[in-house]
Amino acid sequence: MPGSNPIGVRLATISHYLPKRILSNADLEKMMDTSDDWIVQRTGVHRRHMCAEDESVRTMSLCVLKDLLRESGLPPEELDLLILATVGSSMACPSTACQMLCDLAEDPEFGPTNAGAFDMTAACSGFVYGVNLAHGLIRSGQCRNVAVIGTEHLTKMVEYSTRGRGTAILFGDGSGGALLRATDDPSKGLLAQSMHSDGTRWRDLFIPRSECDFPDGVANDDLPMGIMRMNGRAVFKFAVGTFGDLIAETLEKAGLSADDVDHYICHQSNIRILEAARDRFGIPPEKMPINIDRVGNTSAASVPILLSEQTKSGLIKEGDRVMMVAFGAGLTWTSSLWQL
Ligand code: UT7
Predict the structure, then answer these.
(1) What is the pLDDT at residue 296?
(2) Alpha carbons 274 and 159: distance in angstroms, whole number
(3) How confident is the model at residue 118, as a pLDDT?
(4) Residues near 92 by beta carbon (within 8 Å), at least 6 away in sequence
(5) What's the gap in Å between 167 CA and the centre of ligand 1?
(6) For 140-157, how does the pLDDT look when each residue is reduced to its tens digit (9 = 90+)?
């Protein structure tokens, strides 16, 4: 792809936000029939972050957006588009992205912008879908500056009781994002990407709003509306195969081997899923970093939080090749392989 168009794309600034409050496995042991041992062995999670009362998808995402603008020095009026990937928009309309731009306009440090803004629902794949879309818009000359943010407040969508333990142990809150910018260097940008879904598998992971949302033949259970239903075992099986196939597909599209990629930034779904992908390609642990132990599974925020941590600590550098990989509800799966 690079070279076919003179416009390159940079992942110019990357940032993340994690709520201060920590929810440990020991905390969960007091709320439900589970154990630290079970959670660590089955998921790799030791603790996760949890929003305080005054935190939300909007406040966490705004924090990240402000960081992106501050660190890049981009005036808000030069932002062309804001894509917010989340399953936690507070209203059907307006989008949380539009509300964030209202908050930005009312903050004297920033001010107004007429950037396009929308929320996108692709669950755990949302941030990577958004990055692929943003790249296309910049490479084709339609936009110059696009912010893509992935944010989830999943602790609100699980139940902290024994009947909710199948999901409550896995998920956490957080936000991460990237500012994608046009550059004159056409070698920078996507080497390959893929975006997939299998809608016939939607029943494996859903968050019902009403009785009508339940699939035919599946009776409502005891959990309230708004609480996630996940067939963990089915999603796990799907993910173990798909994760590896996705990496293979992306490498083939780019004409690269697994060794040619410097960093695999993968959705932190479950440590066992990540280890299976690592073993299949013989990827050394330092090339496939893990933070699920401290952060849990943060769905759309998972990839950008890890990308931000690795970039801020200097481990990911300009010139590196980075593959982002994610999968989730839908079922959806996606990848984005970058030449930084
Ligand atoms: O990121 C979005 C996409 N989602 C995912 O990637 C999630 C993929 N799935 C998973 O990560 C795993 O399926 C889970 C971590 C959710 C569950 O692990 P599992 O190894 O698949 O456990 P399971 O659901 O098959 O349950 C095994 C046993 C059951 O008991 P029995 O029937 O064998 O007696 C469960 O009742 O473990 C029991 N169990 C628990 N025990 C203690 C289920 N949850 C818990 C718990 N603590 N929290």
Answers:
(1) 98
(2) 26
(3) 98
(4) none
(5) 8
(6) 999 999 999 999 999 999
